Write a sequence for this structure.
């Protein structure tokens, strides 16, 4: 496309996961509304062959290279090769590393990923939140094997808010709604039942929560969702499912999310000898 119309490609070359380069590029792109820019990250660069391939791709598409390499030899190799191949390469790290080495009187270690290693707890927590959001409400069951726990229960029993609260503490939590007439996913049988926990609640409280939600949404007042007999049947069926799966269930009636989360953490920690994930909020 022409200069007025559109697209350009930026390759981010990193010795780590590429988060610094991605953050920089995505911070700048909103300054150019209406323009299409493809951002491709090449992470974990350890060998010159990886740089060769990236520069070749960039040259073929007239792309821009943004690199955050801290290994001095790899960084210099990329700089030289890009210049030789007439590829525009922007060094995000080199100038600052050189300046810090000069004023601090110490050469940089040149080890990629140190920031992430030093801030592992933070990145683990972010990863747990991202996992939990991606596996809310029965989504992406193929990823359940990576869950610290899987919560199941009927609608409005508190699965999502409990899951999100736990994720902020660093736990990867998936949840599955039990919907009348809908078969359980096959993936449920593949996960360790010790990590699957059913949530149940007193019928009157569940009915009140559902009625409150229905009023908030402006939905019709008469439906199985808020019909007392149907609510009792759903809860009875949930208990049967818990028993058939051989899983533990906990009653969340009148419990704040924090109390439910503490109970779940103690249960999973005891079963798998996992330490609670302490966190400062």
């Amino acid at each position: 496309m022409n200069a007025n119309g559109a697209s350009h490609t930026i390759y981010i070359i990193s010795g780590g996961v590429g988060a610094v380069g991605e953050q920089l590029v995505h911070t700048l792109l909103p300054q150019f509304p209406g323009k299409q820019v493809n951002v491709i990250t090449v992470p974990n660069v350890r060998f010159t062959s990886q740089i060769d391939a990236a520069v070749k791709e960039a040259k073929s598409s007239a792309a821009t290279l943004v690199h955050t390499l801290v290994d001095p030899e790899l960084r210099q190799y990329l700089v030289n090769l890009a210049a030789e191949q007439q590829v525009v390469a922007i060094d995000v790290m080199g100038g600052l590393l050189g300046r810090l080495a000069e004023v601090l009187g110490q050469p940089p270690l040149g080890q990629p990923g140190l920031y992430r290693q030093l801030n592992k707890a933070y990145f683990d927590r972010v990863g747990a939140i991202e996992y939990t959001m991606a596996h809310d409400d029965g989504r992406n069951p193929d990823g359940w094997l990576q869950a610290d726990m899987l919560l199941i229960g009927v609608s409005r029993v508190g699965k999502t808010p409990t899951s999100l609260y736990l994720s902020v503490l660093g736990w990867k939590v998936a949840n599955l709604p039990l919907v009348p007439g809908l078969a359980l996913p096959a993936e449920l049988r593949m996960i360790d039942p010790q990590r699957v926990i059913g949530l149940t609640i007193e019928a009157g409280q569940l009915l009140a929560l559902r009625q409150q939600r229905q009023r908030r949404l402006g939905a019709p007042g008469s439906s199985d969702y808020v019909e007392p007999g149907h609510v009792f049947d759903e809860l009875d069926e949930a208990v049967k499912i818990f028993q058939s799966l051989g899983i533990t269930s906990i009653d969340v009636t009148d419990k704040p999310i924090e109390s439910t989360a503490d109970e779940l953490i103690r249960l999973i920690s005891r079963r798998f000898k996992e330490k609670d994930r302490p966190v400062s909020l």
Notes: The CA atoms of residues 169 and 279 lie 6 Å apart. Residues 1-5 have pLDDT under 50 and may be disordered. The longest strand covers residues 8-13. Residues 8-118 form a domain with the Rossmann fold fold (CATH 3.40.50.2300).
